């Protein structure tokens, strides 16, 4: 313990501040890391998160507890390294703040990419145009009434209402192609 006291007494004020930040934030960072690996990734995150909406409505989580812990952890260790390397206090502060900000941007970017990677089960009927499918229930000729077709849209096989401009009925089992969409109803043509 005496060697710790001697070491601490030998540090300058700036290094004491960096070490004072580094120790608790590193411990908290490691606890978050362990909790994440054990399946409790959100357990230590008791503070509410502020969200900044991106242009397309996807939340970009910039100010979160995890990001702040990451900022201060990288900020403090970079500051210690720069101070020990003999950099000036101003340059040390600039480099450590920049490193902390880069860490926050990296973490926010990773969360953003993970949110983009999630599957969206919403069917976008416009994606059916040009796709081939099969008649499920006879589609009467010249748009007399509607039938049904099975077609793969947005990664799932769907049974959708359809009509045709063809001169003959499209019987069950006939292969069709979607030519356009009118009021969320497929307009198909037989192959």
Would you write up a description of this structure?
Strands 3-4-5-7-6 form a five-stranded mixed β-barrel. A two-stranded antiparallel ribbon has the order 1-2. Mean pLDDT is 84; it is low at 43-58. The radius of gyration is 30 Å and the shape is rod-shaped. The longest helix has 29 residues, at 89-117. With 191 residues, it is of the alpha+beta class. The protein is built from four helices and seven strands.
How many individual β-strands?
7
Percent of residues in helices: 40-55%
What's the alpha carbon Rg, rounded to whole Å?
Answer: 30 Å
N- and C-termini, Cα separation = 86 Å
Keywords:
alpha+beta; 4 helices
Gist of the model:
The chain is of the alpha+beta class. It is built from four helices and seven strands; from the N terminus they run H-H-E-E-H-H-E-E-E-E-E. The termini are far apart.
Task: Set down the secondary structure blueprint.
Elements: H1 2-10, H2 13-37, E1 50-53, E2 59-63, H3 65-84, H4 89-117, E3 132-137, E4 147-153, E5 156-164, E6 175-182, E7 185-190
Parallel strand pairs: 5-7
Antiparallel strand pairs: 1-2, 3-4, 3-6, 4-5, 6-7
